[in-house]
Write a structure and sequence with these properties.
Blueprint lengths: L1 H5 L3 H14 L4 E7 H9 L2 H4 L4 E8 L1 H4 L2 H11 L4 E5 L13 H6 L4 E3 L3 H10 L4 E8 L4 H13 L5 E7 L2 H11 L6 E4 L1 H7 L5 H5 L5 E3 L4 H16 L5 E3 L11 H10 E8 L3 E10 L26 H4 L24 H4 L4 H8 L2
Parallel strand pairs: 1-2, 1-7, 3-4, 3-5, 5-6, 7-8, 8-9
Antiparallel strand pairs: 10-11
Helix pairs in contact: 2-13, 3-17, 8-9, 9-14
This protein binds iron/sulfur cluster (SF4) (2 copies).
């Protein structure tokens, strides 16, 4: 446990908290973009350890939560085709679409299977040549390279029965939209660790240059997060706005160029629809012309008109405008056993984090 213990040392944590207390002179709001940060912040009680004038607000960094109902409805419609096996990551099963969910459809007898990696979809396609296997491809930049590799394999192996329902997203354009909308005051960003291993720090430069906000790419252990907060407070107090890397043991400025190249072999950058944030330019991907035959959106289905639950505030929670405590359904009607919105389904979802850790 040597490496884990190193990042949970109580003495070092107290030292960092003192540094934060000494440096912080004014009320500020910091957004943690990534869902895993939200969970770590709650799990280790970090909100209670830092001075009350530093408020942490949760952002849109849970890939399950930001998938819009229109795409969930599309997956549900595809799963209803008799010739389709729908393949997805576990969390997507329970996310409610407009009128159903993949879990309900499975109970109705549809062939829907949970996988841990997009590469598992290849195997299912090979084993079921008489079926159309559709992989519901959600995720951020962390997941996109493995999805691209699966697509390249499918093409190489001439797998004619594997398709991808693409709903992948890119994080920096969502941050741009949040800053541009000015609906929530954000003094600085705790940036996602895993996403940044792929994209590096350059795609975030606009945060400092165009919006003059500091941001720190931060790891997930308690000491990482405390150090990230301290680095942000220091920048704010010194009047600086830079993109810094706290998570240096994993993240490098240039990211992972090989992984990025794989993604761009298959996809081109396109607009994408986000729950709560709407259509955001250049925040997603579409298939390049040479990979069109793998696009599940070419398979004919009738998709219902998407509707949101009228009382679910997930869209506002994802933008940091509301907390789950401001949703009337929280805890009483909506809980992990009976989730009304995706923010309560996913382990990275803000509503589930509040439910588990906030008494
Ligand atoms: S993939 Fe990693 S970095 Fe991205 S939101 Fe999930 S935990 Fe955060
Ligand atoms: S508590 Fe449930 S209903 Fe309320 S915003 Fe969160 S997911 Fe939606």
């Amino acid at each position: 446990m040597k490496f884990i213990d190193e990042f949970r040392d109580g003495g070092i944590a107290r030292g960092l908290i003192q540094k934060i207390e000494k440096s912080s002179s004014r009320p500020i709001q910091l957004m943690e973009v990534c869902g895993t940060h939200t969970v770590s912040i709650f799990r280790y009680g970090i909100r209670k350890l830092i001075p009350p004038q530093i408020q942490l607000i949760s952002g849109p960094g849970c890939p399950v939560c930001v998938t819009p109902n229109s795409d969930i409805d599309y997956a549900i419609a595809l799963s209803r085709r008799k010739d389709v096996i729908l393949v997805t990551f576990g969390d997507m099963m329970r996310v409610p679409g407009s009128t159903s969910s993949l879990l309900k459809e499975k109970a109705e007898g549809r062939d829907i299977r949970v996988v841990y990696s997009s590469l598992d979809a290849l195997k299912i396609a090979e084993e079921n040549p008489d079926k159309k296997v559709v992989f519901f491809a959600i995720g951020f930049e962390t997941t996109s390279p493995t999805i691209a590799v699966a697509i390249l394999h499918a093409k190489e192996e001439r797998l004619r029965n594997l398709f991808f329902l693409n709903s992948q997203k890119k994080i920096p354009p969502a941050i741009f939209t949040l800053l541009q909308s000015k609906r929530v005051k954000i003094n600085g960003f705790i940036l996602p660790g895993h996403v940044s291993t792929i994209i590096g720090s350059d795609p975030y430069q606009f945060i400092a240059k165009e919006f003059f906000r500091p941001a720190v790419i931060t790891g997930f252990e308690p000491l990482d997060i405390l150090q990230g907060i301290w680095m942000l407070v220091r920048q704010i107090e010194e009047g600086r706005a830079e993109i810094e890397i706290q998570y240096k043991r994993v993240v490098h400025k240039e990211g992972n160029p090989l992984a990025l190249r794989k993604v761009l072999e298959v996809f081109e950058i396109n607009q994408a629809q986000w729950r709560g944030l709407g259509w955001i330019p250049e925040s997603g991907y579409r298939f390049k012309a040479s990979f069109q035959e793998l696009d599940a959106r070419n398979l004919y289905v009738e998709v219902e008109t998407p509707r949101e639950h009228p009382e679910c505030k997930c869209g506002e929670v994802l933008q940091g405008i509301k907390t789950p405590l401001q949703c009337r359904l929280f805890r009483i009607v909506c809980n992990p056993e009976n989730p009304v919105g995706p923010c309560m389904v996913s382990v990275e979802g803000t509503c589930q984090a509040y439910y588990k850790f906030q008494s």
